[in-house]
């Protein structure tokens, strides 16, 4: 019966015009109340490929579900819940819009059944309150109106069935409160709750009710949840970035998809908790993934909503609530405090202002809840104490004041000797995003809210100086190293974007100078604007609840409703400057000893003035001013930065003209260049949007506020690279700047910045296509200059290593840092290094491991082409068998990439035969062969011509002659099959020679016979080989000699001669 039912299931779904007849037939044979059919429909509805079904098939599925609903089939509500999950938020693609319309039509057509199912009603409301916000375009207006009408009717008629959604219902409704259709409902919920239901006690009831997991989970499609949980349940802290990058590029790259971040982070915070086993392992923590995602957001509105999603449950936390609601936000603050205080600052300030302004009637209650949450976390050991955070030298006064107001009772114990926890060292520093996507990262405006979102009293620059102007440097890449990898490189589109446009309401980041000018203008306009209140009276457009506030002056579109992130602009400003301030302190503290010595021991004041005039003094003064004004005044900061670069230009001009020792000059300018370079890392991870033919003069660099003093230095090198004397002096000075014994990281930061600068010169598509395939005229000069730079460092450090080893270790460290900050530039540089720096790069396993870890799929293809073309080598003429064996201990993706590259190099260098004739290689493949490398291995083997020696070497791949099997035997079968078809004569000749030589090699002979017998028994032997009777007879003879049985078809057939009858001519004869 079930099998017959299956056939009808398929017919109903796939039939073009007779599915009603099939359903009628199915009804006749139904004996299980359609349970089997429901199971199959449920599997389809929950499939990760559901959205890829053909439209016609999907329509028939909805028709079938409607028919089953009309029959009141039991448990069909599960199908509705699964279909609602498939409707994605933030997706206005045609397929998703059609799906949204289909689900709405289904619910409209089955209204009587629908009204009797509370779970479906609540899930529908939760889903479509999100979807309505997405359908704001003109072509979706009619669909949006139908969705609004149906949802509003449900809310008014079935309000008490929607209340179990909890506090997230308030957040969702606030997003829509600017729409006229929801304005009255919003007003009734706030001021006349009895109109919705006599049992409804008010909005505070909703805010105090946690949202159940199933409602947060319903906003993630099965595919998205599966991929997200794979990261959170399986990947270690140093492995998650690549998968998270794929995830973001796949599901969150479109501009309209950014609102989906809120749903995902709400799910991560309150919809899923790690098990104790995961908590005790090195699996990537939730707060790291959340932080990585936050860094990719570009929209003001979404950035604010995401912060609300992060701390939402903390505002109403009670001892009965799950501590996992508030753990991510607290750990993110604690682990960021020491090195990256801006993260701690923005969350702490957001929390403080949310308590004050989120919902004024519950201000005291929220303050108690926030304190209660902290008490529970301290009690249960989520954090040990607040005092290490409070006393951390990098935390500013404003943040401490917020901590006093929120958690004063917990700031009494003296734990000054207690170490402040930080991010686990196992967290990898590579980018969590795919750098093929060159959308700009979370811009400065992503963490700020337009003027109307400033609530409460006015805050001027004088009153809040420490919190101002943080947005300019929000992309500080040092933060990315620590917490998120470099999200800047791949936050979006699948194609490279050369420029980004900035709209009035969007925060897509353009060039940093344009961003800074725009933000300066916004600050001047907004800083003194009065702020509207929280949840109070007035029109819906002026009400703020649920973490948002809508500007009454802007049109009523949902996209223009700005989130009520309390004084969030100040938070974003604080976030960026604190990151830089902390970096300054970290980098400057141990170098100020040199700076306090005046102008260095080798250059007295009168000498420096006589040689350089007042340029050195101006440079030093401007660099100190840059550090001091970074968090106070954008205009002053830019002016001082320009002064520093202008002074450095004058200094370097004198340095190149006269014989000033680099060691003498660097004591004065070196620390400032190092510190300024380390605190300006944001420009490194940002995709290069400049014109490759732009003016590269020093004056242009000076005028560009996005470039620091090291950019000017490198630009001067570029302009003088063809002059040997000047180039050599610049390299020696750069080595002196990089040489700093106390911190090797700073040395490699200079090298990393060097390779970033060079990569930016490879900007045109034509140049990128040339990489690894032809000559780039100027790159040999770059390699020669870098070699000089490393040789100077080798001498300064007094290294006992030989120069080649030192160069290898140094460039590996530089490349590691480059990979951490900009994987796109890393991938661009690698082929050129193998082409022009082969003596250091080729055959180095540590370097190869790094490349395999960071290599992007498209770059694997480009490298493969270069290797097979023969223009570069990665493994060298003598391939170390240790490298081959180590390749099988890598991850699956890295192993595949390794063997793809190795295959291409062996083919390009015509070294396949010698590779497999190496007994050590065959021994490794005998014991470590994996299915991941079958394709490249077969490509290598099939490229050769059959010979006796090669076949004998291939037979060594088998681990056992008694019971061969597995991947090795499959490889041999496939190879024999291809040879037999492509080169029968050569194959037969090679086999004949092999058989002739095996009479005295019993062990190899047994292996050969077993392989040939297994091949024959598999019925894969081509007829052309079966016809070679003489060859098969020789093989059978060999088998008889060594005692191995052979198929009877191989044995020669003995032809019996008939005896002739003698015919006598006569009787006597």
Provide the descriptors you would attach to this structure in a database record.
1069 residues; 56 helices; mainly alpha
- C-alpha geometry: flat
Tally of separate helices: 56
Q: Helix fraction?
A: 55-70%
Q: Main sheet, how many strands, which sense, barrel?
A: none
End-to-end Cα distance, whole Å, is: 88 Å
Low-pLDDT segments = 1-11, 434-601
Radius of gyration: 36 Å
Q: Give the overall average pLDDT.
A: 75
Structural class comes to mainly alpha
**How much strand?**
under 5%
* Number of beta-strand segments: 0
Would you give an account of this structure?
With 1069 residues, this protein is mostly helical. The chain is 60% helix and 0% strand. The protein is flat.
Please outline the helices and strands.
Elements: H1 2-14, H2 19-29, H3 35-45, H4 55-70, H5 77-86, H6 94-109, H7 111-114, H8 118-134, H9 141-157, H10 159-162, H11 167-176, H12 180-191, H13 203-207, H14 213-217, H15 222-234, H16 240-251, H17 260-271, H18 276-279, H19 286-294, H20 300-311, H21 327-336, H22 341-357, H23 363-380, H24 387-390, H25 397-407, H26 477-484, H27 512-526, H28 568-588, H29 592-595, H30 605-612, H31 615-629, H32 634-657, H33 662-678, H34 682-685, H35 698-703, H36 709-719, H37 724-738, H38 744-760, H39 765-770, H40 779-797, H41 803-821, H42 823-836, H43 838-841, H44 845-854, H45 857-869, H46 881-887, H47 892-909, H48 912-917, H49 919-928, H50 934-942, H51 948-955, H52 966-982, H53 984-997, H54 1002-1017, H55 1023-1026, H56 1029-1042
């Amino acid at each position: 019966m079930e099998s017959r039912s299956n056939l009808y299931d398929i017919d109903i779904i796939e039939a073009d015009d007779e599915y009603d007849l099939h359903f009628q037939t199915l009804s006749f044979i139904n004996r299980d109340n359609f349970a089997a059919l429901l199971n199959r429909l449920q599997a389809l509805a929950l499939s990760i490929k559901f959205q890829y079904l053909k439209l016609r098939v999907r329509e028939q599925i909805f028709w079938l579900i409607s028919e089953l609903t009309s029959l009141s089939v039991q448990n069909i509500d599960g199908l509705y819940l699964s279909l609602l999950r498939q409707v994605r938020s933030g997706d206005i693609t045609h397929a998703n819009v059609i799906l949204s319309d289909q689900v709405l039509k289904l619910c409209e057509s089955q209204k009587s059944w629908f009204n009797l199912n509370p779970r479906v009603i609540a899930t529908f409301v939760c889903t479509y309150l999100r979807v309505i916000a997405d359908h704001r375009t003109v072509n979706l207006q009619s669909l949006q109106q139908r969705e609004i009408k149906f949802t509003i009717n449900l809310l008014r008629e079935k309000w008490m069935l929607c209340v179990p959604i909890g506090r997230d219902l308030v957040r969702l409704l606030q997003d829509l409160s600017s729409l006229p259709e929801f304005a009255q409902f919003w007003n009734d919920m706030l001021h006349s709750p009895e109109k919705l239901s006599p049992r409804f006690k008010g909005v505070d009831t909703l805010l105090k009710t946690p949202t159940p997991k199933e409602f947060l989970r319903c906003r993630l499609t099965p595919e998205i949840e599966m991929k997200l949980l794979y990261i959170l349940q399986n990947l270690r802290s140093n492995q998650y970035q690549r998968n998270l990058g794929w995830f973001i590029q796949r599901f969150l790259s479109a501009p309209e998809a950014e609102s989906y971040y809120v749903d995902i982070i709400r799910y991560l915070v309150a919809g899923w908790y790690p098990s104790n086993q995961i908590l005790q392992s090195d699996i990537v923590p939730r707060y790291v993934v959340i932080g990585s995602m936050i860094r990719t957001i570009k929209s003001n509105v979404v950035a604010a909503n995401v912060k609300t999603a992060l701390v939402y449950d903390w505002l109403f936390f009670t001892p009965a609530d799950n501590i996992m609601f508030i753990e991510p936000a607290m750990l993110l603050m604690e682990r960021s405090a020491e090195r990256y205080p801006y993260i701690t600052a923005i969350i702490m300030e957001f929390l403080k202002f949310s308590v004050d302004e989120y919902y004024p009637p519950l201000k005291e209650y929220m303050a108690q809840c926030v304190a209660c949450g902290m008490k529970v976390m301290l009690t249960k050991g989520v954090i040990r104490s607040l005092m290490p955070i409070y006393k951390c030298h990098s935390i500013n006064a404003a943040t401490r004041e917020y901590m006093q107001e929120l958690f004063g009772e917990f700031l009494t114990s003296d734990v000054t000797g207690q170490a402040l926890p930080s991010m686990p060292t196992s967290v990898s520093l590579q980018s969590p995003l795919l750098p093929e996507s060159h959308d700009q990262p979370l811009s400065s405006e992503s963490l700020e809210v337009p003027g109307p979102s400033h609530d409460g009293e006015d805050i001027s620059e004088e009153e809040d100086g420490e919190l101002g102007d943080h947005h300019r440097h929000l992309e500080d890449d040092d933060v990315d190293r620590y917490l998120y990898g470099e999200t800047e490189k791949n936050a979006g589109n699948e194609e490279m974007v050369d420029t980004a446009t900035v709209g009035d309401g969007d925060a897509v980041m353009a060039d940093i100078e344009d961003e800074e000018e725009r933000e300066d203008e916004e600050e001047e306009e907004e800083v003194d604007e009065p702020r509207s209140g929280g949840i109070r009276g007035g029109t819906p457009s002026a009400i703020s609840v649920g973490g948002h506030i809508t500007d009454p002056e802007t049109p009523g579109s949902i996209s223009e409703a700005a989130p009520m992130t309390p004084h969030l602009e100040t938070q974003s400003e604080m976030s960026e400057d604190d990151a830089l301030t902390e970096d300054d302190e970290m980098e400057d503290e141990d170098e100020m000893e040199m700076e306090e010595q005046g102008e260095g021991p080798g250059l007295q004041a009168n000498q420096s003035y006589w040689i350089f005039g007042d340029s050195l003094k101006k440079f030093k003064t401007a660099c100190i001013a840059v550090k001091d004004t970074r968090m106070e005044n954008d205009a002053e900061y830019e002016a001082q930065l320009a002064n520093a670069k202008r002074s450095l230009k004058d200094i370097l001009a004198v340095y190149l003209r006269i014989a000033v020792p680099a060691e003498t000059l660097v004591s004065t300018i070196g620390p400032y260049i190092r510190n300024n370079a380390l605190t300006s890392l944001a420009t490194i991870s940002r995709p290069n949007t400049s014109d490759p033919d732009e003016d590269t003069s020093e004056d242009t660099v000076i005028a560009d506020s996005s470039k620091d003093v090291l950019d000017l230095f490198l630009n001067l090198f570029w302009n003088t690279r063809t002059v040997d004397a000047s180039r050599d002096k610049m390299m020696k000075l750069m080595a002196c700047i990089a040489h700093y014994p106390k911190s090797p990281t700073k040395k490699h930061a200079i090298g990393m910045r060097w390779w970033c600068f060079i990569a930016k010169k490879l900007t045109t598509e034509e140049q990128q296509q040339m990489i690894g395939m032809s000559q780039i005229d100027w790159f040999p000069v770059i390699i020669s200059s870098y070699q000089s730079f490393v040789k100077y460092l080798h001498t300064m450090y007094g290294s006992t290593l030989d120069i080649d080893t030192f160069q290898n270790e140094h460039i590996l460290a530089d490349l590691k840092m480059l990979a951490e900050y900009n994987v796109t530039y890393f991938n661009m540089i690698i082929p050129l290094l193998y082409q022009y720096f082969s003596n250091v790069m080729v055959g180095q396993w540590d370097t190869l491991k790094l490349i395999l870890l960071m290599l992007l799929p498209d770059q694997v293809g480009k490298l493969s082409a270069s290797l097979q073309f023969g223009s570069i080598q990665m493994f060298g003429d003598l391939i170390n068998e240790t490298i081959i064996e180590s390749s099988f201990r890598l991850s699956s993706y890295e192993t595949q990439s390794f063997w793809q590259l190795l295959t291409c190099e062996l083919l390009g260098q015509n070294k396949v035969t010698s590779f497999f004739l190496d007994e050590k290689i065959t021994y490794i493949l005998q014991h470590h062969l994996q299915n991941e490398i079958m394709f490249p291995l077969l490509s290598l083997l099939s490229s050769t011509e059959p010979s006796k020696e090669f076949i004998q070497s291939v037979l060594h791949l088998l681990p056992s002659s008694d019971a061969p099997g597995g991947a090795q035997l499959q490889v041999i079968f496939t190879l024999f099959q291809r040879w037999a078809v492509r080169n029968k004569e050569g194959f037969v000749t090679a086999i004949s020679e092999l058989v002739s030589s095996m009479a005295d090699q019993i062990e190899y002979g047994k292996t050969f016979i077993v392989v040939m017998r297994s091949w024959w028994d598999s019925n894969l032997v081509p007829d052309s080989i079966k016809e070679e009777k003489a060859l098969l007879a020789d093989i059978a003879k060999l088998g008889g000699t060594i005692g191995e049985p052979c198929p009877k078809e191989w044995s020669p057939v003995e032809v019996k001669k008939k005896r002739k009858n003698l015919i006598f001519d006569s009787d006597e004869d």
